[in-house]
């Protein structure tokens, strides 16, 4: 019964103080509308980049790319490409407009601007910087791979010569009654076995590296082109107004309850 009386009192309070509640509610909406329409529009463009691989290893992880785009040198490069003054303020401003995330081996790069054209330009330059960086990494790996293969080939040639020489020495000295020569031949045989094992191991490595060179190296590439959007992502006018309306209603009810409380007569016993 007490709960029903409290609820009835609360409803009576709302009925009595409806002007305060409505005033705060409408004021919040009006302020939200004015602020939302006065804020500058923000447009967003995104591009998807698949990170290249050398064998099963990524050229660069997404986390590394994110860290790279926090460095002053890379951000300065982007600012230069945008034909903007390379200042600390401009670098920080551009940094706040670049958003990079990763899903597996795919990078999602987002760029924001006050116009669709500026957002598109920013994303294109960021993507270009990433692709150029990955191209260097890709070419470096290919270069080192070729250098490695060349080095292994030279080692194989030398080992082949060594094996032939050892075989000749073994054949020349295998028919002997001398204990000393027998020990020497035994040493030649051990060296031959060791050289043969190393030769076979290098041949396997050579085969793997040639496969890596031929089939398992892929450069980074764009898999979803950046598209200019005419719809701004900010400010979110509808959401802002809805939030303002909810907050205004809560504040209005609270203010009405406060006024009602202070206007109640004080009971003196």
Tell me about this structure:
With 269 residues, this protein is an alpha+beta fold. It has two domains: 1-39 and 239-262; 40-234. Helices cover 68% and strands 12% of the residues. It contains eight helices and seven strands. The strands form two sheets. It has a four-stranded antiparallel β-sheet. A three-stranded antiparallel β-sheet has the order 3-2-6.
Outline:
This protein is an alpha+beta fold.
* Shape call: elongated
How many strand elements? 7
Order of helices and strands, N to C?
A: HHEEEHHHEEHHEEH
Structural class, by secondary structure, is alpha+beta
- Report strand order across the widest sheet: 4-5-1-7
SSE blueprint:
Layout: H1 2-16, H2 18-38, E1 43-50, E2 53-54, E3 57-58, H3 62-68, H4 72-81, H5 88-95, E4 98-103, E5 106-113, H6 116-173, H7 179-214, E6 217-218, E7 221-224, H8 237-263
Antiparallel strand pairs: 1-5, 1-7, 2-3, 2-6, 4-5
Helix pairs in contact: 2-8, 4-5, 4-6, 6-7
Task: Throw out a few tags for this protein.
three-stranded antiparallel beta sheet; alpha+beta; 7 strands; 269 residues; 12% strand; four-stranded antiparallel beta sheet
């Amino acid at each position: 019964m007490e709960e029903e009386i409290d609820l009835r009192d609360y409803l009576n309070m709302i009925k009595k103080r409806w002007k305060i509640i409505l005033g705060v509610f409408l004021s919040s909406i009006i302020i939200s509308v004015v602020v939302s329409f006065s804020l500058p529009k923000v447009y967003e463009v995104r591009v998807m980049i698949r990170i290249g691989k050398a064998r099963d290893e990524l050229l660069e992880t997404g986390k590394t790319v994110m860290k790279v785009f926090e460095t002053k040198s890379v951000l300065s490069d982007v600012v230069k490409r945008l034909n903007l003054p390379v200042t600390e303020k401009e670098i920080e401003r551009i940094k706040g407009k670049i958003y990079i995330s990763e899903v597996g081996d795919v990078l999602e790069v987002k760029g924001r601007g006050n116009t669709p054209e500026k957002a598109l330009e920013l994303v294109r330059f960021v993507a270009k910087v990433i692709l150029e960086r990955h191209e260097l990494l890709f070419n470096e790996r290919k270069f080192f791979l070729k250098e490695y293969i060349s080095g292994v080939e030279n080692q194989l040639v030398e080992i082949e010569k060594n094996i032939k020489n050892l075989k000749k020495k073994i054949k020349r000295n295998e028919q002997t009654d001398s204990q000393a020569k027998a020990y020497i031949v035994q040493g030649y045989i051990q060296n031959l076995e060791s050289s043969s094992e190393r030769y076979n191991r290098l041949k396997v490595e050579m085969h793997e590296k040639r496969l890596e060179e031929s089939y398992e190296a892929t450069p980074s590439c764009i898999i979803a082109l950046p598209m200019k959007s005419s719809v701004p992502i900010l400010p979110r006018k509808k959401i802002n107004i809805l939030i303002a309306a909810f907050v205004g209603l809560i504040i209005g009810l609270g203010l009405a309850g406060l006024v009602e409380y202070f206007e109640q007569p004080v009971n003196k016993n």
